[in-house]
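Let us begin with a simple case.
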Amino acid sequence: MKTNDRSILSLQLRHVYLSCRIAASAVRKAALDSVRWLRMSTDERRYDQLTRAAERGDLHAVRDALERGAPVNAPASWKGGDGELYSYASEPLFCAAWFGLVDVAWLLLERGASISGQNSSGWTLLHAAAQSDETRRRGDGTSKRAVIELLLHAGVDPGVRDVAGRQAIDLVGEAEREIRELLQCHAAAATFNQELPTPSNGHVRTRL
C-alpha cells in the first residue's frame, strides 16, 4: 500500500473513531437524562420543561408550560443536570435575563417569578442581563436594555457585587451608554434611599 493511501486510510479511521465517540457520548447523555427525568416529581418535570422553553426563547412554550401548572420558581428539591442545587430562585427567569428575552422575562415576572439568588460567581439576574450580547440573543422580543430596565423595576439591586467585586454595570460595555446611565441612576437612587434619616416627627419620607 502506498504511503498516500495509508495516510488517507488513517484519516478515515480517525474520523470513524471520533464519530463513534460523539455518538456514544450523545447516547450516554440521553440515557442519563431519561433516568433523571424518571426520578423527577411532577413539579420538577414541569419546571424542567419551563426552564428549557425559556432557554430556547419560546414564548408560546413558556406560556403553555405555565398554563399546565409549571411552578415559576424552583421546587425545594430541584437540582440541575450536574446534581447541584440551582442558585437562582427562578432558573427560567435567569435564562430570560441571560439571553435578553424581554417578553419571556415579563411573563415570568407577571406570574410571580422570584428575583432572588446569586450563583457561585455572585452574579444576580442583573449581572446575567448585563453580560448578555447579540451572539446569544435570538428570536423576537430580545432587548438587553429592556430586560435590564424590567429587572430594575422588579427590584433587583444594581449595587450588589459578585465575588470579583463587580457590579452589573461593570459588565456593560463602554459603548452601551444608555444602559450604563440607567444602572447608574438606579444605583444612585438606591443609595439615596438607604441613607435617608428616620424622621423624628414620624412622617414617612418619600423615596425615589
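The second case is a distinct protein. As before, the sequence precedes its C-alpha cells.
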Amino acid sequence: MSDSKSLVLSFATLVLRTVFRFLLAALFFAAALLHFADPRLFLPIMPPVIPFPIACIVLSGFAELVGAIGLLIPLPRVQRLTGWWLTALLLAVFPANIYMAVAHIQIHGFPAHPWMAWARLILQPVLIALVLWVTGAGLKAAKRGEP
C-alpha cells in the first residue's frame, strides 16, 4: 500500500475510533445516571444469588461513570486502562443480562419482545470488542508502537 493511502487509512481509523469512543462515553455516562437516579429500577434483573443488590447496582453505576470519564481522557495509558476497566464491568453485569433474558423480565416495558433480551446478550461481546478497539486495550504493544 502506498504511503498516502496508508496515511488516509490511518487518519480515517483514528477519526472512527474517536467518534465511537465519544459515543461509548455518552452511553456509559447515561447508564451511570440511570443507575444513580433510580437504583431500584434495576432490581428485577438482579439474579437472586447476588448479595446486596442495591449496592451492586450503585457500584456498577460508579464503574460506568469512571469508564465514561476515562474514555474522554486522550492519554494512551488511560485509554488502555479504561478499556480493561469497562471490559471487566461488561463481564460483571453479564449475569444480570442473562437473568433478564432467561426469566423474561421487563423494566418499564423493555424489552418489548423476548428476542430483544436475547439480542442484548449477543451485543455484549460486540460492545466489549468495540471498547477494546477504541481504547487500544486489545492491541499488542508492538502494534501500538511501544517497546
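The chain has a mean pLDDT of 90. The CA atoms of residues 32 and 65 lie 5 Å apart.
Keep these points in mind for the review questions at the end of the chapter.
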